[in-house]
Sequence to fold (468 residues):
Amino acid sequence: MPNNAKFSKAFVWGTATASYQIEGAVRAGGRGTSIWDTFSHTPGRTANGDTGDIACAHYDHVDEDLDLIAGLGRSAYRFSVAWSRIQPEGKGPANQEGLDFYRRLVDGLRARRVAPVVTLYHWDLPQALEDAGGWTARDTAERFGEYAAIVAEALGDSVEMWVTLNEPWCVAWLGYGTGEHAPGYADVSKALMANHHTLLAHARASEALRRTVKAPVGIALNVTPMIPASDHELDIAAAKRADGFQNRLFLDPLFWGTYPADMVEHYSSHKPGLDAVRPGDLEEIRRPMDFLALNYYSTNVMADVARLDAAKQAGFEVAPPPTSGANADLGAARVGRVYAPHTGARWEVDPSGLTGLLVRISEEYTSLPLYVTENGSAELDYAGPDGQVHDPKRIWYLEQHLRALHAAIERGVNVRGYFVWSLLDNFEWAHGFSMRFGLVFVDYPTAKRTPKDSYRWYRQVIAANALP
Ligand code: FCB
Fold:
């Protein structure tokens, strides 16, 4: 492994956040209700009953947060626009106060020489659209195109990169297939429709953006490498199914204009489902993008549910198999590598998976520029007696992943940038505030921000354009 990984001058260094996870101020500025407001306020849905009502109070701390971003040096900042601030009911005319908020953010970034990277959808669908079927409804994709046109018109002169949707797999399958995320359905049929409609929404938004902006347009996928738990044919098949489910159901339509044959077959009895596809949709979905964004945290070791006892005997950590929803239907389960390093939130750490992922995408799917738009670790951070937050494990995690990314570049993969998840500790969806991913510690009761050691480490990396 290179011990002093150097990056090209043009390499983009960034941090990332998402609207519902940081903004708070859910009733300010004419914002409408989103599915995450509803979901987080439903008892039992989030750890501790946590909600994003206040979160990091970013809405009221924009200048302070802009200065924190600028303090990292010459970088990019990826944030998402809350659809319900722009169109409180998910359709109709724009809410000027909502646009003004993001205009101020974008101008503040540019004034500090930070490149704004906008994600149009990071999971906070206007509740009014959910009431009309949400992502199971084709109409939501049409509405998304209109929303994209509004944002493009308002911010298009100042945004350097556009990400249409963040992790449509999570939107469709965690939202409608397992129920872990808003709106909380565990229904394979709904998830299949949502799968298709999120991709169609990407196509509609891309088209709308291209009418107005010249900046590059792409989508962010959480492609997760799937490794079989053994060389038994059932485990190999389970890992392939899991890859189809989480990765190829999105990659194949985007790059090849087809849904993978094995998945079409697997889901053929679920109706409605992929029969939501209409003539012409796939041609639209496969229209060329300018880059592909990838979010990477870990790899999954997969076993067939019929072989979980064998996996246990082989030393894997095995949870009881799911009995309903998309995971039960898949017949494959993730098993834990007990001896792998883990983050503070018990996520397995596997940096080499990032190299493999980048190589695979470039060999199998595309030579487009790739960006890692999320990577990071949740650790058990706290402010010590010196008032500082020392987070050596996060620094180690980030460093290992940057080395892994650099290894992919050395193998010829066209990787153009890297964004740490996240700038700030924030509302981690169903895990509420129990998971801290930030380079900056947030004391939630007071909203006080304290840059962690990793913040200063990342600043050095950016300044040197190399690992220390
Ligand atoms: C990703 C999400 C992001 C954050 C990280 C930890 O799946 O895009 O919002 O929750 O995981």
